[in-house]
Structures are given as structure tokens and as C-alpha cells.
Amino acid sequence: MIGFHTKWYLEAISNHQKNAGGLKILLLEQRKEILEKSIIVTNKNIIQLVAKKLLMILNFF
Hints:
Blueprint (H helix, E strand, L loop, with lengths): L1 H59 L1
């Protein structure tokens, strides 16, 4: 009986670790997507700022 409980306990721990690993990968992928989206938004903002500055310079002449 003790052996059965030990085996069950070890399997439960093993399954938990596998699930936790999968969850970590999911969270990392989500974090990566968020970073990629924020980089795209930042790049768009930089392009808009540069365009505005160029228009201001061109209007000056």
C-alpha cells in the first residue's frame, strides 16, 4: 500500500512539473507577443515623430 501511494505521489509531482513547464512556455509566448506589439507601436510612433519634424523643417523653407 505504501508503494502505491509513493508511486501515485511521484506521478502527481511529475505531471505537475510537466504542466507547469507548459504554462511557463505559454506565458513566455504571450510576453513575447506583447513585446513584439509594443515594438511595432513604438516604431510607428517614432516614424510619425520623424515625419512631423520633417514637415516642420520643410515648411520652414
